[in-house]
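pinned: reference chain
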Amino acid sequence: MMRDAPYGTVAIVISQPLARVAVRSPTRHRCPGLLPQRAFRAPFGPERGPVQCWLHRPAGDTRPARDKEEETMGTRKRCIAASLAGCLAAPAVALGQSDYPTKPVRFLVGAAPGGATEIIARALGNKIAEKYSQQVLIDPRPGANHIIAGEITAAAAPDGHTIQMIPEGFVINASIYPKLPFDPVRDFTPIAIVAMVPNIMVVHPSLPVRSVPEFIALAKKRPGELSYGTSGVGSPSHMSAELFKILGKVEYAHIPYKGQSLALIDLIGGHLQFAFPSVPSSINYIKSGRLRALGVTTPQRASALPDVPTIKEAGLPAFEVSGWYGVIGPRNMPRPLVERINSDINAALKTPELSKLLSSRGADPIPRTPDSFAKSMVDDRQKWANVVKTAGIKVQR
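pinned: its C-alpha coordinates
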Protein backbone atom coordinates (compact mmCIF):
# COMPACT_ATOMS: atom_id res chain seq x y z
CA MET A 1 0.00 0.00 0.00
CA MET A 2 1.11 3.57 -0.66
CA ARG A 3 1.78 5.40 2.60
CA ASP A 4 -0.46 8.34 3.51
CA ALA A 5 0.48 11.78 2.20
CA PRO A 6 1.07 14.48 4.81
CA TYR A 7 -1.87 16.86 5.35
CA GLY A 8 -1.82 19.81 2.96
CA THR A 9 0.03 18.06 0.12
CA VAL A 10 -1.35 17.23 -3.27
CA ALA A 11 -1.31 13.55 -4.18
CA ILE A 12 -0.61 12.87 -7.84
CA VAL A 13 -1.02 9.26 -8.96
CA ILE A 14 0.18 8.53 -12.49
CA SER A 15 -1.34 5.52 -14.15
CA GLN A 16 0.76 3.22 -16.31
CA PRO A 17 -0.63 4.33 -19.73
CA LEU A 18 -0.12 8.00 -18.90
CA ALA A 19 3.41 7.40 -17.62
CA ARG A 20 4.44 5.83 -20.93
CA VAL A 21 4.13 9.14 -22.79
CA ALA A 22 7.66 10.38 -23.58
CA VAL A 23 8.28 14.02 -22.63
CA ARG A 24 11.79 15.51 -22.78
CA SER A 25 12.85 17.36 -19.64
CA PRO A 26 16.13 19.07 -18.60
CA THR A 27 18.29 16.45 -16.88
CA ARG A 28 19.58 18.93 -14.30
CA HIS A 29 16.22 18.69 -12.49
CA ARG A 30 16.63 15.20 -11.09
CA CYS A 31 13.44 13.35 -10.34
CA PRO A 32 13.36 9.69 -9.19
CA GLY A 33 11.98 7.09 -11.51
CA LEU A 34 8.89 5.12 -10.79
CA LEU A 35 9.59 3.00 -7.77
CA PRO A 36 7.27 0.28 -6.51
CA GLN A 37 5.26 1.38 -3.49
CA ARG A 38 7.46 4.38 -2.72
CA ALA A 39 6.91 8.11 -2.45
CA PHE A 40 9.33 10.94 -3.16
CA ARG A 41 9.36 14.73 -3.07
CA ALA A 42 8.98 16.92 -6.13
CA PRO A 43 12.25 18.23 -7.70
CA PHE A 44 12.15 21.69 -6.15
CA GLY A 45 12.02 20.36 -2.59
CA PRO A 46 9.63 21.07 0.27
CA GLU A 47 11.02 24.55 0.78
CA ARG A 48 9.61 25.61 -2.61
CA GLY A 49 6.02 24.49 -2.06
CA PRO A 50 3.76 22.05 -0.24
CA VAL A 51 3.33 19.65 -3.15
CA GLN A 52 4.70 16.11 -3.22
CA CYS A 53 4.41 13.67 -6.10
CA TRP A 54 3.09 10.31 -5.00
CA LEU A 55 3.87 7.88 -7.82
CA HIS A 56 2.97 4.22 -7.74
CA ARG A 57 4.22 1.53 -10.02
CA PRO A 58 2.85 -1.99 -9.79
CA ALA A 59 5.34 -4.58 -8.56
CA GLY A 60 6.75 -6.97 -11.10
CA ASP A 61 6.81 -4.51 -14.01
CA THR A 62 8.67 -6.27 -16.82
CA ARG A 63 8.44 -3.64 -19.56
CA PRO A 64 11.47 -2.96 -21.84
CA ALA A 65 14.13 -0.56 -20.59
CA ARG A 66 13.23 2.02 -23.29
CA ASP A 67 9.65 2.22 -22.01
CA LYS A 68 10.94 2.68 -18.48
CA GLU A 69 13.27 5.48 -19.61
CA GLU A 70 10.43 7.26 -21.44
CA GLU A 71 8.28 6.85 -18.38
CA THR A 72 10.94 8.44 -16.18
CA MET A 73 11.35 11.45 -18.49
CA GLY A 74 7.60 11.97 -18.51
CA THR A 75 7.58 11.76 -14.77
CA ARG A 76 10.23 14.47 -14.48
CA LYS A 77 8.03 16.84 -16.44
CA ARG A 78 5.02 16.07 -14.30
CA CYS A 79 6.97 16.52 -11.09
CA ILE A 80 8.10 19.96 -12.23
CA ALA A 81 4.52 20.91 -13.07
CA ALA A 82 3.31 19.61 -9.72
CA SER A 83 5.88 21.63 -7.83
CA LEU A 84 4.98 24.76 -9.75
CA ALA A 85 1.35 24.14 -8.89
CA GLY A 86 2.38 23.88 -5.28
CA CYS A 87 4.12 27.22 -5.45
CA LEU A 88 0.93 28.77 -6.79
CA ALA A 89 -1.29 27.01 -4.30
CA ALA A 90 0.78 27.90 -1.26
CA PRO A 91 -0.53 31.48 -0.92
CA ALA A 92 -4.15 30.25 -1.04
CA VAL A 93 -3.46 27.72 1.70
CA ALA A 94 -1.83 30.36 3.86
CA LEU A 95 -4.57 32.95 3.41
CA GLY A 96 -6.91 33.43 6.30
CA GLN A 97 -3.99 33.40 8.71
CA SER A 98 -2.48 36.31 10.56
CA ASP A 99 -0.28 37.41 7.65
CA TYR A 100 -3.23 38.74 5.57
CA PRO A 101 -3.04 41.14 3.80
CA THR A 102 0.39 40.80 2.20
CA LYS A 103 -0.10 43.77 -0.14
CA PRO A 104 -2.47 46.77 -0.49
CA VAL A 105 -6.15 45.81 -0.63
CA ARG A 106 -8.05 47.10 -3.65
CA PHE A 107 -11.55 48.18 -2.59
CA LEU A 108 -13.66 48.63 -5.73
CA VAL A 109 -16.65 50.95 -5.83
CA GLY A 110 -19.02 50.86 -8.79
CA ALA A 111 -20.33 54.40 -8.34
CA ALA A 112 -19.01 57.94 -8.60
CA PRO A 113 -17.37 59.61 -5.57
CA GLY A 114 -19.89 61.30 -3.28
CA GLY A 115 -22.55 58.58 -3.53
CA ALA A 116 -23.57 56.29 -0.67
CA THR A 117 -21.48 53.38 -1.95
CA GLU A 118 -18.29 55.41 -2.02
CA ILE A 119 -19.02 57.17 1.28
CA ILE A 120 -19.57 53.89 3.14
CA ALA A 121 -16.65 52.12 1.44
CA ARG A 122 -14.21 54.91 2.26
CA ALA A 123 -15.31 55.09 5.90
CA LEU A 124 -15.02 51.32 6.29
CA GLY A 125 -11.75 51.11 4.35
CA ASN A 126 -10.11 53.74 6.52
CA LYS A 127 -11.14 51.89 9.67
CA ILE A 128 -9.99 48.39 8.72
CA ALA A 129 -6.74 49.83 7.34
CA GLU A 130 -5.88 50.82 10.91
CA LYS A 131 -5.65 47.11 11.75
CA TYR A 132 -3.78 46.03 8.64
CA SER A 133 -0.14 46.64 7.84
CA GLN A 134 -1.21 47.48 4.29
CA GLN A 135 -3.28 50.24 2.70
CA VAL A 136 -6.92 49.83 1.69
CA LEU A 137 -7.19 51.69 -1.62
CA ILE A 138 -10.63 52.91 -2.74
CA ASP A 139 -10.95 52.41 -6.51
CA PRO A 140 -14.08 54.05 -8.02
CA ARG A 141 -15.20 52.43 -11.30
CA PRO A 142 -18.62 54.03 -11.91
CA GLY A 143 -21.10 52.97 -14.55
CA ALA A 144 -23.68 50.35 -15.56
CA ASN A 145 -25.04 49.84 -12.03
CA HIS A 146 -21.74 48.47 -10.65
CA ILE A 147 -21.25 46.03 -13.54
CA ILE A 148 -17.93 47.57 -14.63
CA ALA A 149 -16.49 47.18 -11.14
CA GLY A 150 -18.08 43.74 -10.90
CA GLU A 151 -16.22 42.50 -13.98
CA ILE A 152 -12.92 43.50 -12.38
CA THR A 153 -13.79 41.78 -9.12
CA ALA A 154 -15.00 38.60 -10.82
CA ALA A 155 -11.71 38.31 -12.74
CA ALA A 156 -9.47 38.94 -9.71
CA ALA A 157 -7.59 36.30 -7.74
CA PRO A 158 -9.62 34.99 -4.77
CA ASP A 159 -6.92 36.00 -2.31
CA GLY A 160 -8.76 38.80 -0.50
CA HIS A 161 -6.74 41.61 -2.02
CA THR A 162 -9.60 42.66 -4.33
CA ILE A 163 -12.99 43.30 -2.75
CA GLN A 164 -16.01 45.38 -3.77
CA MET A 165 -18.70 47.39 -2.03
CA ILE A 166 -22.12 46.78 -3.59
CA PRO A 167 -25.68 48.02 -2.99
CA GLU A 168 -28.71 45.76 -3.02
CA GLY A 169 -29.30 46.72 -6.65
CA PHE A 170 -26.24 44.73 -7.72
CA VAL A 171 -28.09 41.42 -7.38
CA ILE A 172 -31.00 42.74 -9.47
CA ASN A 173 -28.80 43.11 -12.55
CA ALA A 174 -29.46 39.52 -13.66
CA SER A 175 -33.15 40.38 -14.13
CA ILE A 176 -32.40 43.50 -16.16
CA TYR A 177 -29.30 42.84 -18.28
CA PRO A 178 -29.83 39.83 -20.58
CA LYS A 179 -26.14 39.74 -21.56
CA LEU A 180 -24.60 40.23 -18.14
CA PRO A 181 -20.93 39.06 -18.13
CA PHE A 182 -21.36 37.34 -14.77
CA ASP A 183 -23.98 36.02 -12.36
CA PRO A 184 -24.25 38.56 -9.51
CA VAL A 185 -24.79 35.81 -6.95
CA ARG A 186 -23.02 32.69 -8.21
CA ASP A 187 -19.80 34.34 -9.43
CA PHE A 188 -18.91 36.16 -6.20
CA THR A 189 -18.17 35.41 -2.57
CA PRO A 190 -20.41 37.20 -0.03
CA ILE A 191 -18.19 38.53 2.77
CA ALA A 192 -20.20 40.91 4.94
CA ILE A 193 -23.25 43.15 5.02
CA VAL A 194 -22.11 46.56 6.20
CA ALA A 195 -25.21 48.70 6.69
CA MET A 196 -28.89 49.12 5.99
CA VAL A 197 -29.42 52.36 4.09
CA PRO A 198 -32.83 53.92 3.38
CA ASN A 199 -33.49 55.79 0.19
CA ILE A 200 -35.44 59.02 0.39
CA MET A 201 -37.81 60.77 -1.98
CA VAL A 202 -36.59 64.33 -2.58
CA VAL A 203 -37.80 67.08 -4.91
CA HIS A 204 -36.36 70.34 -6.16
CA PRO A 205 -37.60 73.21 -3.93
CA SER A 206 -39.28 74.84 -6.93
CA LEU A 207 -41.68 71.90 -7.33
CA PRO A 208 -45.00 72.95 -5.69
CA VAL A 209 -45.38 69.86 -3.49
CA ARG A 210 -44.64 69.20 0.19
CA SER A 211 -46.02 65.70 0.68
CA VAL A 212 -46.36 62.35 -1.07
CA PRO A 213 -50.10 62.82 -1.84
CA GLU A 214 -49.40 66.26 -3.35
CA PHE A 215 -46.66 64.78 -5.54
CA ILE A 216 -48.94 62.00 -6.78
CA ALA A 217 -51.66 64.53 -7.61
CA LEU A 218 -49.19 66.69 -9.56
CA ALA A 219 -47.76 63.71 -11.45
CA LYS A 220 -51.26 62.65 -12.50
CA LYS A 221 -51.98 66.15 -13.81
CA ARG A 222 -48.71 66.15 -15.77
CA PRO A 223 -48.23 62.51 -16.88
CA GLY A 224 -44.76 61.86 -18.30
CA GLU A 225 -43.57 65.45 -17.78
CA LEU A 226 -41.66 65.00 -14.53
CA SER A 227 -38.22 63.40 -14.65
CA TYR A 228 -35.93 61.84 -12.07
CA GLY A 229 -32.29 60.74 -12.01
CA THR A 230 -30.68 57.58 -10.62
CA SER A 231 -27.29 55.93 -10.34
CA GLY A 232 -28.26 53.52 -13.11
CA VAL A 233 -30.85 51.05 -14.35
CA GLY A 234 -31.66 48.56 -11.60
CA SER A 235 -30.10 50.65 -8.85
CA PRO A 236 -31.92 51.04 -5.49
CA SER A 237 -32.92 54.58 -6.46
CA HIS A 238 -34.35 53.32 -9.76
CA MET A 239 -36.23 50.40 -8.21
CA SER A 240 -37.68 52.68 -5.52
CA ALA A 241 -39.01 55.04 -8.19
CA GLU A 242 -40.46 52.18 -10.24
CA LEU A 243 -42.24 50.70 -7.23
CA PHE A 244 -43.61 54.17 -6.40
CA LYS A 245 -44.83 54.50 -10.00
CA ILE A 246 -46.65 51.17 -9.83
CA LEU A 247 -48.30 51.79 -6.46
CA GLY A 248 -49.04 55.47 -7.10
CA LYS A 249 -50.32 54.78 -10.64
CA VAL A 250 -48.35 57.67 -12.12
CA GLU A 251 -46.01 58.16 -15.09
CA TYR A 252 -42.68 59.99 -15.24
CA ALA A 253 -39.34 59.82 -17.08
CA HIS A 254 -36.18 58.06 -15.90
CA ILE A 255 -32.72 59.56 -16.52
CA PRO A 256 -29.88 57.16 -15.55
CA TYR A 257 -26.46 58.52 -14.53
CA LYS A 258 -23.10 56.91 -13.76
CA GLY A 259 -23.52 57.78 -10.10
CA GLN A 260 -26.10 59.13 -7.69
CA SER A 261 -23.96 62.17 -6.92
CA LEU A 262 -24.10 63.17 -10.60
CA ALA A 263 -27.89 62.88 -10.63
CA LEU A 264 -28.12 65.01 -7.50
CA ILE A 265 -26.04 67.74 -9.12
CA ASP A 266 -28.56 67.98 -11.96
CA LEU A 267 -31.48 67.83 -9.53
CA ILE A 268 -30.08 70.70 -7.47
CA GLY A 269 -29.46 72.59 -10.71
CA GLY A 270 -33.13 72.28 -11.69
CA HIS A 271 -32.59 69.91 -14.63
CA LEU A 272 -34.59 67.18 -12.84
CA GLN A 273 -37.68 67.42 -10.65
CA PHE A 274 -37.15 64.62 -8.12
CA ALA A 275 -35.11 61.56 -7.16
CA PHE A 276 -34.87 58.65 -4.74
CA PRO A 277 -31.23 58.90 -3.58
CA SER A 278 -29.80 57.22 -0.50
CA VAL A 279 -29.88 59.19 2.73
CA PRO A 280 -26.06 59.31 3.04
CA SER A 281 -25.65 60.89 -0.40
CA SER A 282 -28.41 63.50 0.07
CA ILE A 283 -28.61 64.35 3.76
CA ASN A 284 -26.41 67.45 3.52
CA TYR A 285 -28.49 68.85 0.65
CA ILE A 286 -31.68 68.22 2.62
CA LYS A 287 -30.40 69.92 5.75
CA SER A 288 -29.15 72.91 3.75
CA GLY A 289 -32.54 73.37 2.03
CA ARG A 290 -31.29 72.68 -1.47
CA LEU A 291 -33.57 69.64 -1.64
CA ARG A 292 -36.95 68.98 -0.02
CA ALA A 293 -37.58 65.55 1.51
CA LEU A 294 -41.03 63.95 1.16
CA GLY A 295 -40.50 60.50 2.67
CA VAL A 296 -38.05 57.66 3.34
CA THR A 297 -38.44 54.28 1.68
CA THR A 298 -37.97 52.11 4.78
CA PRO A 299 -40.71 50.95 7.19
CA GLN A 300 -39.17 53.08 9.96
CA ARG A 301 -38.06 56.68 9.87
CA ALA A 302 -34.37 57.35 9.35
CA SER A 303 -32.54 58.04 12.61
CA ALA A 304 -30.58 60.83 10.91
CA LEU A 305 -33.81 62.53 9.69
CA PRO A 306 -36.45 61.77 12.33
CA ASP A 307 -38.82 64.51 11.14
CA VAL A 308 -39.19 63.01 7.65
CA PRO A 309 -42.10 60.52 7.46
CA THR A 310 -41.94 57.16 5.74
CA ILE A 311 -43.59 56.92 2.33
CA LYS A 312 -45.77 54.18 3.82
CA GLU A 313 -47.20 56.49 6.48
CA ALA A 314 -47.26 59.46 4.09
CA GLY A 315 -49.71 57.97 1.62
CA LEU A 316 -48.65 54.60 0.11
CA PRO A 317 -49.25 51.88 2.74
CA ALA A 318 -47.85 49.08 0.56
CA PHE A 319 -44.58 50.89 -0.21
CA GLU A 320 -41.41 49.56 1.43
CA VAL A 321 -37.80 49.46 0.22
CA SER A 322 -34.99 48.55 2.62
CA GLY A 323 -31.59 48.65 0.97
CA TRP A 324 -28.34 47.12 2.20
CA TYR A 325 -24.71 47.69 1.30
CA GLY A 326 -22.23 44.83 1.50
CA VAL A 327 -18.74 43.62 0.64
CA ILE A 328 -18.09 40.83 -1.86
CA GLY A 329 -15.00 39.19 -3.32
CA PRO A 330 -14.20 36.93 -6.28
CA ARG A 331 -15.70 33.47 -6.41
CA ASN A 332 -14.01 30.59 -4.53
CA MET A 333 -12.37 32.59 -1.77
CA PRO A 334 -11.12 30.22 0.97
CA ARG A 335 -13.58 30.04 3.85
CA PRO A 336 -10.98 30.90 6.54
CA LEU A 337 -10.09 34.04 4.61
CA VAL A 338 -13.75 35.05 4.21
CA GLU A 339 -14.32 34.61 7.94
CA ARG A 340 -11.18 36.61 8.71
CA ILE A 341 -12.27 39.59 6.59
CA ASN A 342 -15.85 39.31 7.88
CA SER A 343 -14.54 39.44 11.44
CA ASP A 344 -12.39 42.49 10.66
CA ILE A 345 -15.34 44.32 9.07
CA ASN A 346 -17.73 43.48 11.90
CA ALA A 347 -15.18 44.60 14.48
CA ALA A 348 -14.81 47.91 12.64
CA LEU A 349 -18.59 48.41 12.50
CA LYS A 350 -18.82 47.96 16.27
CA THR A 351 -16.33 50.72 17.02
CA PRO A 352 -17.96 53.92 18.32
CA GLU A 353 -16.16 56.04 15.72
CA LEU A 354 -17.38 54.20 12.61
CA SER A 355 -20.82 53.43 14.02
CA LYS A 356 -21.40 57.10 14.86
CA LEU A 357 -20.07 58.25 11.49
CA LEU A 358 -22.32 55.92 9.49
CA SER A 359 -25.38 56.64 11.63
CA SER A 360 -24.91 60.39 11.24
CA ARG A 361 -25.05 59.91 7.47
CA GLY A 362 -28.21 57.80 7.60
CA ALA A 363 -26.61 54.34 7.40
CA ASP A 364 -27.31 51.84 10.19
CA PRO A 365 -24.41 49.38 10.76
CA ILE A 366 -25.54 45.73 10.80
CA PRO A 367 -22.75 43.18 11.44
CA ARG A 368 -23.76 39.85 9.89
CA THR A 369 -22.18 36.51 9.00
CA PRO A 370 -21.18 35.59 5.42
CA ASP A 371 -24.01 33.03 5.31
CA SER A 372 -26.58 35.62 6.37
CA PHE A 373 -25.35 37.94 3.63
CA ALA A 374 -25.53 35.14 1.05
CA LYS A 375 -29.17 34.49 1.97
CA SER A 376 -30.03 38.18 1.62
CA MET A 377 -28.50 38.27 -1.86
CA VAL A 378 -30.56 35.30 -3.02
CA ASP A 379 -33.82 36.45 -1.41
CA ASP A 380 -33.61 40.05 -2.65
CA ARG A 381 -32.75 38.94 -6.15
CA GLN A 382 -36.03 37.03 -6.31
CA LYS A 383 -38.06 39.77 -4.60
CA TRP A 384 -37.06 42.44 -7.09
CA ALA A 385 -37.36 40.18 -10.13
CA ASN A 386 -41.15 40.53 -9.81
CA VAL A 387 -40.95 44.35 -9.80
CA VAL A 388 -38.65 44.29 -12.82
CA LYS A 389 -41.11 42.11 -14.71
CA THR A 390 -44.14 44.24 -13.80
CA ALA A 391 -42.39 47.48 -14.72
CA GLY A 392 -41.01 45.99 -17.94
CA ILE A 393 -37.45 47.07 -17.12
CA LYS A 394 -34.88 45.69 -19.55
CA VAL A 395 -31.57 46.90 -20.91
CA GLN A 396 -29.60 45.56 -23.87
CA ARG A 397 -25.86 45.45 -23.31
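why pinned: Residues 204 and 273 are 6 Å apart (CA to CA). The chain has 13 helices and 13 strands.
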